[in-house]
Model the fold of this input.
Amino acid sequence: MSILRPLRAVALLGAGLAVCATTVSPATAAEPNWQAQPTYGTYNLGAGFSPDPYQVSVAAGGNTSATNLRGDMSGCINWGAPDVDLNYSAGGYPLTIGAQSGIDTVLIVYDPNGNWWFNDDAHGSNPAIRLNNPPNGNYNVWVGTYQCGVGTPGATVYFTER
Ligand SMILES: [Ca+2]
Ligand SMILES: [Ca+2]
Done:
């Protein structure tokens, strides 16, 4: 009979993990949905692209706090879809993704290697993220408003290799 003890312990541990899994997966996904169709389009750029900077008009912000993704992030974004997707073919240049707006914005990028990047105030209140060795592939870009509850003001996303 003693052999039942460890088996029972394993069974109880398994049940505990199952309960945890159901409580940590509520309606709000753990990550912003980088697989969704981007709200303001997908752009294909290769190294040496022109014009540089390449600009896309978006509306910044959304209803979800970026702190849900990581505690050191801030601002509010559209959790349900990226604002812009970039399919990039690298060529040895650094790649900078930035945003410009009349209001204080933040930038979140999910890169092809699965890394989440955040910036708030690289240039005044405008954010930018510079990748010195950008990988090929799909970049997912969110422009957030630093303050939540300010609606979805206009902003420009830009890509540059300079
Ligand atoms: Ca994507
Ligand atoms: Ca900012």
The CA atoms of residues 118 and 135 lie 17 Å apart.
